[in-house]
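Database export, one record per block. Field names are fixed; values are copied verbatim from the stored entry.
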Amino acid sequence: MTQGIIINIRNGANLNSGGGIKKSQNVLISMLEELFSGKNAVEKKRILADEFGMKITAELEGRIQIMCNLSENIIERERIDAIKRMIRANASKEQIISFGYTEAEYKKEESTLYANA
């Protein structure tokens, strides 16, 4: 029998940065929100040690680095997919770039998309 759980993780970019979102009172959720935030691995390790009292071992440090790399890859994949969807929806290059994507990202995905067409 397989079991699962869903945890709603808020946008870590707004936590305690004047964005009006307070840290969760639930320690696990607060820790996960920090871990899934856009902060770099060094900052995440500092927060785990200082705010959550965790002892940062070599093993934990390695796992944090793996998690950071994984989250960066997921974000990059999502950006790529979003650009492809906008191109398929006939959005102009200027419109796509105005949403915060780079010209290099646009050109790469445009050439990949039309090469596979």
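Remark 1: The CA atoms of residues 26 and 94 lie 43 Å apart.
Remark 2: The radius of gyration is 18 Å.
End of record.
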